[in-house]
Structure formats: structure tokens, C-alpha cells
Amino acid sequence: MSTWRTSPSSEGILWVSWLLRLPQLCSTCVAFSLVANMGTLRRAIGNWSMSFWCVCFAMTFIIALVECCRHPSSFPFFWYNISVTYACYAALICLSASIIYSITYVQFMPYGPNWDRAIAATAFSCIASVLYVIEVAGMRAWYELKEIFFYVHTVRALLKVLETFVAGVIFAFLSNTSLYLHQPALEWCVAVYSICFILAAVVLLLGLAEWEYMLPGPFSIFQLVLSLLSVLLYISALVLWPLYQFSEGFGGQPQRPSDGDCRDELTYDMCAWDQRLAVAVLTAVNLLVYVADLGYWAGQVSVGTEDQPRDS
């Protein structure tokens, strides 16, 4: 059984709330407000980035409010695991929003007040991602949780966070259903992303609640089978998606068009060809993460050990 009886001091909660959560709230709020102030000129990419910053602001505000209003001893053990796991996702969300917003929108903007706002929003988004990374790295020390097992601080948990996050970004690009509904092979790729995301999310939730060791069989064998299945599925998607999207023989488009929404200037939507390319690249990235996950669990099975919860 894990040790989760140790509770942080009230001073530790307040220090984290004032010295870390407040800058997180300010940076995400400023990034959101700057882009919102651009009006209709923010385009679809701006709306997409705004939604990410708004979610991070809202979740951080809720966590800070709950921690400031309740006594530390009243928190169940998994609250801190959920909090640090959220911070990990928020860091990735703000970083990805900064990168995508800058390379798909800001670089095409003419110099002027709106360009300044977009640059400032990108900078504050990067600051927010750094602040969330600091929270993930310093959670145990600042909350004085020396004896609580933090699932997200393990390699297997970080791999699951990456798997689910990359899949989430893929789904964001796949919101344009015209990319795949015309071809059964591409629909299979979307099914692969969905199946693997659900499997990784279930394992992550089991780990956060520390229910994984309640399974009837060895969890390492179970996870090894799931990782192998996910790798095989992603290999099929990595072959089929580029083949049917970029090969002329399969109805794809090998070259990026220079007209429509793919002009090298501001357009209302992100170029569909760029979305196809982004999904292909992210598929390869997630396959590498799943291969690393498979290697990790193969090593655990081969030596007959795995990360066990800490005993009380």
C-alpha cells in the first residue's frame, strides 16, 4: 500500500499558490487577453490557441481556489497526483500552443500593433509552460510530500502523458474531417489514434488511482501486451496515412499547393496540406514514444521487476 498519509503544511500550500499559481494565472490570462483583443484578425489558429490558454487558466484557478479554501489534511492522496499530472499536461499544452501559433500564424503577420500582441502572447505562453514545468519538478519539495508516491514522476507515467498528449494534438488537427472521411484506410488511422489514446488514458488513470496492482495478473505483462499492440497499430497508421495523403497513386497530393488556404500569407484556416503533414509527423513521434514504452516494459519483464508502490 502506498504511503499517502503525510499532508503538506498550510504554509506550503500558500507559498505554492502565491509564488507559482499566481504567475501561471497571470501569464495564461495575458496570453488569452492579447489574442482576444485582436478581434476577427486572430483567425482560426488564434481561436484554437485561446481555447488552450483559457482551459489552463480555468483549471489552474480551480486548483488554486480549492487548495486555498481547504485544509491540507482534508485532501485525499490522489489530489496531489492529479494536480502535478495536470501541471505536466498544462506545460505541454502551453508549449505546443506557442509553437503552433508562432509558426502557422505569427510569421505571416505584417508588422504592427497586432503583430506585437501576437508576439507578446507567444512569450507569455512560453513563460506559462516554464512555470508549469517548475511546478512538476518542485511539487514534492514545496508541498513537503516527502513520503507520497508521485506517479507522474516515474518514467512509465511520463511516457503515458506524452502518448495521450500527442494523440490529443493529432485529434485537434483531425477536427477537419475532410482529411480522412473520403478514404477507409485513413478512417482506420483515426480509429488507431482513438484506440491507442483510450488504452493509454485508462492505464494512466489506473496509475493515478494506484489500482493497477489490483489486476489479477502481473501488471508488467499486461502493459507489455498493450504497448506491443499500440506499436503495431501505430506502424500501420504510419504507413497508411502518408501513403494515402501524399502518394498520387493512392489519390494523395505530394506537393504543397500555393493557392487557396496554403498561400504564404494570412488565411482564415490552416492549410489542409499542412494539417496532413502535421498528423504524419506526430504519428511518427508518438510511435517513437510507444516504442520507448515497449522497451521500458520489456526491460521490466526481463528482469522480473517493476515500479511498485511504496510501502507504508
TrEMBL record:
- Which InterPro entries has this protein been placed in? Marvel, MYADM-like
Membrane spanning stretches? 12-36, 48-66, 78-106, 118-142, 148-174, 186-209, 221-244
Q: Which UniProt keywords apply?
A: Membrane, Repeat, Transmembrane, Transmembrane helix
The record's annotation in Pfam families points to:
MARVEL (PF01284)
Subcellular location per the Swiss-Prot or TrEMBL entry = Membrane
Note the topology in the membrane. Multi-pass membrane protein
For this protein, the record's PROSITE patterns field holds: MARVEL
Start and end of every MARVEL domain? 12-144, 151-302
Query: What PANTHER family would the database entry show?
Result: MYELOID-ASSOCIATED DIFFERENTIATION MARKER, MYELOID-ASSOCIATED DIFFERENTIATION MARKER MYADM FAMILY MEMBER
Family according to the record = Belongs to the MAL family.
Name of the protein described by the UniProt record: MARVEL domain-containing protein
Q: Which organism is it from?
A: Bos taurus (Bovine)
